[in-house]
Amino acid sequence: MVKILLVEDDVIIQELVTYNLQREGYTVMIAEEGNAALQLLTKEKPELVLLDVMLPGLDGLEVCKKIRGNQETANLPIIMVSARDEVADRVIGLELGADDYVTKPFSPRELLARIKARLREEKRNSTPPPLSLTWGDLEIWPESYMVTVKGEHVTLTGKEFELLHIFMKRPNQVFSREYLLQKVWGYTISGDTRTVDVHISNLRSKLKSVSPIIESVRGVGYRLAVNYSKTKAF
Predict the structure, then answer these.
(1) With respect to CATH, is domain 133-224 assigned 1.10.10.10?
(2) Architecture per CATH, 3-125
(3) pTM of the model
């Protein structure tokens, strides 16, 4: 059975969610505060976490950061549940690593649909990744941090490679500076985003033979250039 960890201190919501998940055949584990959730993660190894934001002690945002910061749980699907419906709250949750965000009060049917969608995506993503990723004349090998352009080796720093890897995994997605800062440097969203700009500038310089490989999206962030010739497929 698929195990789901529910991190929620409201007994009524615990009962509602548990009832509906068990009807669908899921095994539900409950933690009422953040530290207990982290202990259960290590012990029970659930396939998905339903994480309330407002928790006693260690709140849901901190729990999310710790889950993403642990190599063993970094890719675990997380759906945040919160009574806070402000756009800023949702953005913070998603940029800290949540895969989805549901606001209270919620429909049990909608929550189930989101859970099933996340589990389907996780199953697809569990297939072995390719040894290399390509984008036109650019090719990278994530395991060895190697990069070639038209077959010629290009030397990147670790951070430059990690940035490039993020872009190449999702070539049509725009990434905010805050997201890149958190993913590559592990900083909170209050960090200095100029660090990202400097590294992107250096990356563009080193990959100038395939320029513009990374383009700016005004007021948003960066993405892999959509007009760059995709002569090879992922």
Answers:
(1) yes
(2) 3-Layer(aba) Sandwich (3.40)
(3) 0.55
CA–chain centroid gap for 217, Å, is 20
Per-residue pLDDT tens, the chain, 234 aa: give them. 899 999 999 999 999 999 999 999 999 999 999 999 999 999 999 999 999 999 998 999 999 999 998 888 888 999 999 887 777 777 888 888 888 989 888 999 999 999 999 898 887 766 665 689 988 888 999 988 899 998 899 999 999 999 999 999 888 789 999 899 888 887 655 557 788 999 999 999 998 887 557 889 888 899 987 555 443 433
Name the strands in the sheet holding 78-82, side by side, starting at the edge strand that comes first in the sequence. 27-31, 3-7, 48-52, 78-82, 100-103
For the chain, domain boundaries = 3-125, 133-224
In eight-state DSSP terms, residue 75 is: T
